[in-house]
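Run folding on both entries below.
>entry_1
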Amino acid sequence: MVSKVAPLRGSPGFAASTRDQHRQAAAVAFAVTALTAAQAQTGPQPRALAPAAQSIQQQLNALKTEVTALQTANASLQDEVGALHNQLAAVQANPALGLGPIVNVDPNPEVSVAGPNVTGGTRNTAGG
């Protein structure tokens, strides 16, 4: 095994090794400065972003759940509106509604007859 002996102070090898050490130290300092500047420009490292990303992912999942619930509620309301349209169509198709202009319906009792009571209207058939 060959061991490396450090050059003695004052020898030509000592100055070269010290110069190399200074160059290496300067290169390391430059690299650290460059990496620090790059990090400042690119923002925090992924480890620093992990909690924020997790929070955003949780919010996204909550919103997806809410969207699904709203879509289900919307489908239910659309079904209900469709059923109400069908009921309205049945009422509008009732021929008894044609009697509306010539008949009155009074919900109160009249002459000891419980309401509702149907009475003749006041339609003027001669004048239109």
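>entry_2
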Amino acid sequence: MKTPHSSTRSPQVLYVFFHGPWGFAVHETTQVITALTPVCPGHQYRWGDGHGLQGMPAGNYALADEGAIAGQPNWISQVPEQTQITNMPPRFALPRALDDPRVHCSVTLPFTSLLGYPCVPRSIPHQNDDYDNLLSGRHFSLLNQTTAGDDVSLGLAQVLPYVINDFSRLRLVSDTGFQWLPLPTDSGAVKLHIYAQTTGASSEDHFSTMASLFNLDLHLDGIDVTQNGQVHADPSACFATGQPPITADDLKSLEERNAPPSARPHSRTLKFPIACGGTIVINYDPQAMLAPPDQTAASAPAPMPGMGNM
């Protein structure tokens, strides 16, 4: 367990980075986001700030003090609109780690912007098709789609920004007794990285495994449009200027982070394993989910802020 180090300057911003296949259930009424990642063979589950990572045991994680941070739903970003669902099938309830063996962990945080990066563009599907260049499946029609002049992308990772109200109260805890305490920095920003990835090549469709947690039949099968199953991205093109720094190191996969320095790529040619990533944002309203099917569409909320150009 970490203990906070003394510092003359308390950080003002918290960035939470989610790497790998994660689903983000957004409940606007309660102003809560719950992130879920599945149990996948070969996955490592690790988290931490600074240069050290710890194992992240199974469990349900949340803030010990909800007032320690505040969300930034209008945080400016250059990230394009990302893949989301605003009209879930009825009779759906969020699964919980420990209660559902398919779930490794859940992380519940205050409502804020969801910034998908790196982003893989999705093409305009042919009329009446149930697939595009990246995604397919029985629930493909529930996804927001690329149209002329309105691009939609798939985020392979997510960044959630927060303002720190009280650094001394900032702590994430699980229902199994595990916790994360932040390390102060001189940059003005605390960066918590949460990884759910393999450290080597994988041909498994972990996006599909993640989507199944939400009772969705969706598949990430667009590896052929990437370079050797990877996406090359320029991190400097991601975020608007004037924000606390997000660097190339922040956007590396677990495989790249574990690589020796001689094997690490140039900061402008980061490689992301698409088969071990892919995120989806789900506008989750428990009342709508439990309503009869003919009422669900009428109660579906509008797209969330922070998930497109602003």
